[in-house]
Specification:
2 domains, 292 residues, 0% strand, mainly alpha
């Protein structure tokens, strides 16, 4: 068993680049460390340090494996009943690093002339291609977290949420990635959210809804509906705040946001999350109907 672990460690520390098949096979072997679970914390830390440097890897198949392995490496970062944490990679520290890198790569991507993005000529813009690869891998990593982790919802997951909304404008040019991004956000909405996480997440929603990017605002208001559907009972104390937030979006200058906000508000009414008031029915909804 010791020799097997040593062999896998050699695979982790192998910095030589190879073809797609060899690289994918290497990370597939590394992924088998999941059978050791919490027993090899130092190796999971090594994997974490090595893998996070390859999030913009040129091969998509390799990036998918890396995102998978990184999610597994955090699946044992749990808080025990006595309040003590395990000795595995620090999830909050990792996400803080990812958030800073996301901010940088989003800026890089948005500096690319739009004509090149629409024509999908990113091969000629190596820096932009790496930025998109990084963004795509982070979204895959975020999705895999909810498939592997026992305690996926942490403060760090809430902090990365605004970036997942901001990426919506980038994903608009790729229908497949756009759908995958929406699924990744909905994984957070489908998770059980304690009161402290709900408070932090609603604050992030309020912040995103003031973003100058209308794609981000639309993504946030869409997320609000699914979040409430899955956390209907423990989210009732925040009904008034979300009601105000949706009503503000009904008056948004962007038609797409007004349409999504109207559907979200209708969903809140139908699930009895908020009550229909005469002010909503007469003074606001009809005005928005004619405004649209």
């Amino acid at each position: 068993m010791h020799r097997l672990i040593e062999f896998i460690c050699l695979l982790i520390n192998n910095d030589r680049t190879s073809n797609t098949f060899n690289e994918t096979a290497r990370w597939s072997l590394i992924q088998n460390l999941r059978y050791f679970q919490w027993r090899v914390p130092s190796i999971w830390c090594t994997i974490n340090e090595h893998g996070k440097q390859l999030l913009n890897h040129p091969f998509k198949a390799v990036r998918e494996r890396i995102a998978h392995v990184l999610a597994i490496s955090f699946s044992f970062d749990v808080t025990l009943f006595n309040g003590r944490s395990t000795r595995h990679p620090d999830f909050n520290q990792f996400i803080d690093t990812i958030c800073e890198q996301l901010r940088q790569v989003i800026e890089i991507y948005e500096k690319t002339p739009r004509i090149n993005i629409f024509d999908q000529n990113l091969e000629r813009h190596d820096e932009t291609r790496k930025a998109f690869n990084f963004i795509e891998t982070v979204v895959q990593f975020h999705t895999n977290l909810f498939l592997w982790c026992e305690q996926p919802v942490k403060n760090a997951i809430i902090r990365i949420f605004p970036y997942l909304c901001e990426i919506e404008s980038i994903a608009a040019n790729d229908e497949g990635f756009k759908n995958y991004l929406a699924i990744s956000r909905h994984h957070l909405g489908m998770a059980y959210l304690h009161a402290n996480f709900l408070e932090a997440l609603i604050q992030q929603l309020e912040q995103v809804c003031t973003s100058p990017k209308w794609n981000a605002r639309r993504a946030a208001i869409q997320f609000a509906q699914s979040m409430i559907f899955w956390n209907l009972f423990n989210a009732r104390p925040y009904a008034q705040r979300l009601h105000v937030l949706v009503l503000k979006c009904l008056f948004d200058e962007q038609l797409e946001i007004r349409l999504v906000a109207s559907m979200t508000l209708s969903g809140f009414y139908q699930c009895n999350y908020i009550q229909v008031t005469p002010e909503d029915l007469v003074g606001r909804l009809f005005f928005i109907f004619f405004l649209a």
